[in-house]
Each structure stands twice: as structure tokens, then as C-alpha cells.
């Protein structure tokens, strides 16, 4: 990944941003602070990291920002913080995908534990998306006929069974199979199956 994972803090309380900036140094990640949801939206461009988000702010609230990000398909993990949380707000935040909701005042080490989990979740999700995109690109190179053979290989068919199914000679199936293995850069059936599962089949 090109960009370094960043802890994005959206809170109108400057003291929270300062505290997290110091804490970010402890775990080796840069921190960017924003005083409002609008400020964050105008700057954020799907960089890796996590979002520490206050619920109550002037203008757009944390929950509204969370909803908007969800609508836009932005999947950055969110750690919600609030000085005025109630059960309804907590449930809504978690329903929208927040990893947790911490009530102010919270211990910095508690917040950092959740931030570490959020950063790890983002890293794994991005790796998975990269793997899927890579698998898609490799499989897109196959012709329709090669794709037919691939699906039969994944179904566990032998070359003879594939030849019978497709009305081809065993030699023709072997040739097609060799071409597709080369195109997707796979050295074994196990690699082919992993490639298919990386893109959901």
C-alpha cells in the first residue's frame, strides 16, 4: 500500500485532537485532526487508516457523517466517541458499523487499543480488496472457452470428463487448460481454486 495508515480525528474539541496526535506518535502513525465533518469530507480521499469520530458537533453530526460515508461506500473503520452518549445513539452508531463507542472522559490507552484494532481491520480489508482486484484482472484475460474449462477444473472434473462435457478431444482440453494456467499464472489446481475463491467463485 502506498499511503501510510493515518488516524483521522473529527472532533470540535481541539484537546482531543492534540491528545491523539501525541498518542499517534506512540504507536507510530500520523494523526490528522479536523474540527468538523465538512472539513474531513473535503480532505479525505479513501486513504488507509481509521476514523475517531465525535458524535455531537456543530453542523453535521458524527452519526450523519457515518451515514454519508456508508452511502458513498467508504469503509474506513470508525471508533465513535461522545460526552453525551445514550443507548439509542450507541445502538445507531454500532448499527452503522462503528467498532465501538467510548464515552468521554475515556482513558487514552483504552482509545488506543480500539484504534489499533481499527487500523488492523482496515489493513485486512484493503488486502482482501487488492486480492480480489488482482484475481479479477487475471481471470478477465481468459476467453469464454478457457473460462468453461476453468469452471470444470474447479468442479473437480478430470481431463477426460471435461472432454466429454465439452465435446472435445482430451488433447484439446489439455491445450486449453495449459493456456489458461499460463494466463492466470497458476502452477497448480490448488492455485486456481484459491484464485477463484479470492473473487468469490
Instruction: Give the % helix.
Output: 55-70%
Alpha-beta content class: alpha/beta
Biggest sheet details? 5 strands, parallel
Q: Which fold does the CATH topology of the largest domain refer to?
A: Rossmann fold
Give, in order, the helices and strands: EHEHEHEHEHHHHH
Q: Identify the CATH homologous superfamily of the largest domain.
A: Response regulator
Q: Give the strand tally.
A: 5
* Count of helix runs: 9
Count of separate structural domains: 2
Low-pLDDT residue spans: none
Radius of gyration: 24 Å
CATH C-level of the largest domain: Alpha Beta
Distance between the termini: 25 Å
Q: What is the global morphology? A: elongated
Q: What is the strand arrangement across the widest sheet?
A: 2-1-3-4-5
Strand content: 5-15%
Q: What value does the average pLDDT take?
A: 87
CATH-defined architecture of the largest domain: 3-Layer(aba) Sandwich
Which key terms come to mind for this protein?
9 helices, 57% helix, 5 strands, 2 domains, Arc Repressor Mutant, subunit A, 5-stranded parallel β-sheet, 201 residues, Rossmann fold, alpha/beta
How would you summarize the topology of this molecule?
Elements (H helix, E strand, L loop, with lengths): L5 E5 L3 H13 L4 E4 L2 H7 L5 E6 L7 H10 L6 E5 L4 H9 L4 E4 L4 H33 L3 H11 L4 H8 L3 H14 L5 H10 L3
Parallel strand pairs: 1-2, 1-3, 3-4, 4-5
Helix pairs in contact: 6-8, 7-8
Task: Sum this structure up briefly.
The chain is α/β, with parallel strands linked by helices.
Structure write-up:
The chain is an alpha/beta fold. The protein folds into 2 domains: 6-130, 3-Layer(aba) Sandwich (Rossmann fold), CATH 3.40.50.2300; 141-198, Winged helix-like DNA-binding domain superfamily/Winged helix DNA-binding domain (Arc Repressor Mutant, subunit A), CATH 1.10.10. It is built from 9 helices and 5 strands. Helix 6 packs across helix 8 and helix 7 (159-166) crosses helix 8 (170-183). It starts with 5 loop residues before the first strand and ends with a helix. The mean pLDDT is 87.
Amino acid at each position: 500500500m502506498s499511503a501510510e495508515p493515518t488516524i483521522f480525528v473529527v472532533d470540535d474539541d481541539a484537546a482531543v485532537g492534540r491528545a491523539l496526535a501525541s498518542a499517534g506518535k506512540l504507536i507510530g502513525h500520523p494523526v490528522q485532526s479536523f474540527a468538523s465533518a465538512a472539513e474531513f469530507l473535503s480532505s479525505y480521499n479513501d486513504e488507509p487508516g481509521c476514523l475517531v469520530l465525535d458524535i455531537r458537533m456543530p453542523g453535521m453530526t458524527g452519526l450523519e457523517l457515518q451515514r454519508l460515508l456508508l452511502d458513498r461506500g467508504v469503509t474506513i473503520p470508525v471508533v465513535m466517541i461522545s460526552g453525551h452518549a445514550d443507548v439509542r445513539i450507541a445502538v445507531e452508531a454500532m448499527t452503522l458499523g462503528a467498532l465501538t463507542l467510548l464515552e468521554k472522559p475515556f482513558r487514552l490507552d483504552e482509545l488506543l487499543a480500539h484504534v489499533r484494532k481499527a487500523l488492523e481491520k482496515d489493513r485486512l480489508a484493503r488486502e482482501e480488496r487488492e486480492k480480489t482486484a488482482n484475481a479479477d484482472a487475471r481471470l478477465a484475460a481468459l476467453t469464454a472457452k478457457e473460462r468453461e474449462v476453468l469452471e470444470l477444473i474447479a468442479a473437480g472434473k478430470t481431463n477426460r470428463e471435461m472432454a466429454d462435457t465439452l465435446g472435445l478431444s482430451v488433447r484439446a482440453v489439455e491445450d486449453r487448460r495449459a493456456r489458461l494456467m499460463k494466463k492466470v499464472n497458476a502452477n497448480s489446481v490448488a492455485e486456481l481454486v484459491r484464485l477463484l475463491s479470492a473473487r468469490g467463485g
